[in-house]
Amino acid sequence: MKTSTPAESLENYLAAWNATDADDCSARLLAGCAPDVVLLDPNAERPLNGWAAVASHIAYFRERHGHRMEPTGHIDAHHGVCRLPWRLADGDDVHSTGVLIADAAGDGRLQRILHFVDAPAPTPSAN
Fold first, then answer.
1. What is the chain's mean pLDDT, rounded?
2. Quick check: helix, strand or coil at residue 57?
3. Which Gene3D superfamilies match (predicted)?
4. CA 36 to CA 16: how far, in whole Å?
5. What domains lie within the chain, and their CATH numbers?
């Protein structure tokens, strides 16, 4: 496996979230994540370990919601750590927003990924 930058690996991780089939998702995870990657997501009961668990989590979320994970800012990376503000959206329908923070392994692929989900905006009350 060639060495990549954490930013390139994060782009592959985003592409995995937006893949239209399982093979493309797996290829993107392979390119962007270490084999023993750990994903910490508030929508998962426990840490997800490895490509298969992460792919299953993505597939579940995509089937349930159909939203795309889109960056809302640029990837910021230094010292093997990167972060990205994101949103899950389907056009103008925004499901959630948050920030993703990831640690890279020695080859630049993501070793640990943390998703933080922002609290939903308060719904205006009708007066």
1. 90
2. helix
3. 3.10.450.50
4. 16
5. 6-117 (3.10.450.50)
